[in-house]
Write a structure and sequence with these properties.
This protein is of the alpha+beta class. Among the domains are: 62-66 and 97-200 and 418-422; 215-384, no CATH class; 434-470. It has helices at 9-53, 98-106, 109-119, 123-126, 149-207, 212-250, 254-264, 267-289, 295-317, 324-333, 339-409, 435-469, and strands at residues 57-65, 73-77, 81-85, 130-133, 139-146, 419-422, 430-432. The strands form 2 sheets. Strands 1, 4, 5, 6 and 7 form a 5-stranded antiparallel sheet that branches. Helix 5 (149-207) packs antiparallel against helix 11 (339-409), helix 6 runs antiparallel to helix 11 and helix 7 packs across helix 10. The model is unreliable at 1-17 (pLDDT under 50).
Length: 470
Amino acid sequence: MSTTFKPSPTTGAAHTVPQTTAKLRVQSAWPYFRGATLSVVLVWALVSVYLAFTPRMYASRWTLNVPGASNSMSFSLESIGQTSSTPTSPFATSALSPKVVYKEIADSETVRLMAAETLGLTLKDFGRPRIKLVDETALMLFEIAGPSPDAATTRARALIAAFNTQLDRLRNDELEKREAAIRRNLEAYQAEVKRVRDLQRDAQGRSGLASTTQFAEMVASMTTLRRRVVDLDGELERVEHERQSLMVRLRLTSAQASLALKIASDTSVQKAFAELSEAVSLEATDAAKYGPRHPQRLQSATRMAAARGQLDAQLAVLGIERGDDVSAVMLAMNATHRAELMQSLVKAEALAQGKRHEIAIQRAEQRRLEADVSRLTDASVRLEELKKDQIVADAVLSSALARINASRSDIYGSYPIVQVVAQPDKTEYLSQPRMLYAGLGGLSGSVFACLAWFLAWLQFVHRSRRQKNA
C-alpha cells in the first residue's frame, strides 16, 4: 500500500512567505546597488580626469635661516663726545617675529613679480611658494613648483634673489629715512654751533682777549712777577747792605771808589800824581829849611805848581775836575791793598743800580698786568661760559655725525641677514598631480558613496516593513 504526502495549505504558506520577503528585499536593493555602482564609477572617473588633465608640476625645496646674534659698537672722540651702536636681536621680543615678516615679504606680489620678470614669466605662471615656519627655531622652509625639476629649481633661485633684493631695498629705505631724521636735527645742531662761535668772536673782539688760556697765562705771569719783585727786593737789600759795609770800611762813597778805579787805570794820571806827591814833599822840606824868598823854596813851589797843573790836565782828559773827591781819592789810592775793596764797592753799586732798574721795570709790568687782569676778568668768565657751550655744541654735533656713520653699519637691525641653509634641490617629486592624494580621495569617495546608498536602502526596507505591519 502506498501513501502520497500532500502538504497542507498552512505548511505551504509558511514556506512561501520567507521566500517572497527575501525576493522583495533583493528586488528593492537592486536600484540602490546600481546607484552605488554609478557613484563609485563617477568618483573614479573624476579621479581619472584629475590625474589625466592636471599639469605635471615638480617641487623644489630649500631652507632659510634668520640668525639672531647682535653686535655692539662704541667709540669716543677725545674732548668731543662719544657714540655707540647696539643692534638688538631680532628675536629679543616675542611681540614681533622676523620670520613672520619675512614670510609676508617672500609671499608678496612684489617679490613674486620681480622673480617672474627675471624668468620672463607672468605672475600667474610663476606660481606661489609654500612657506612653513619651524617653531622654536629660526628656520623657514620653502617650496615652489614648476613644470620640470630644472624649472622648479630655477624659480626657487629667482625667488631667493628677488627676496634678497627686496630686503636690501627695505634696509636702504630704512637707513635713508633714519639718516634724514638725523640730518634734520643736524641742521639745528650746526646752527647752535655757529651761534656759539659768533658769540665767542664778538666777545673776543670787544675785550681783546683771544681765549681763556691767554687770560690764565696773564694771571700766571702776574703771579710770577710778584714773586720776582719780592726776590729782587731781597737781592737789592743784600747788595745795599754789602755796599754800605764797603763804604764804611773804605770811607769812600761809591762814586769816589769808581773815580779811584778810573784814575788808577790811567798811567799818565798816576805819573802826574806821583810827581805832585814828590813835589809837595820837597816843598814841605824846603819850607822847613828856607825862608819864603829863598831860591830853593821858590823852585820847589814852582815844581809843585807845575805838577799840580800837569795832574789837572790829565784829569781833564778823563773828564774829571780836581776837587775834594779827587783829593780824598788820591789819599785813598796810596793804600794799594784797598783796590780790591773799591772794586767790590763799585760792583756792588752797579749791581744795586741794575736791581733798582729791574725792579722798576718789573713793577711797571706788574701794574700793567694787574690792570689788564682786572679789566678782562668779566670777559674771561664770559669766554669760559661760551667755551663750555661750544664744547657741548661740538659734542652734540660730532655725536650726530657719528650716529649717521654708525647707523650705516647697522643695516641688519630691523631686517636681519638671511642665510640659505639648504640650497634648492632638484628632485623628481611631483607636487601636482598627487597620486597618493588622488588614490586616497577616490577610495574614501567610493566608501562614503557605497555607505550612503546602503543607508538609503536600509531606510527603504525599514519604511516598507512598517507599512506592511500597519
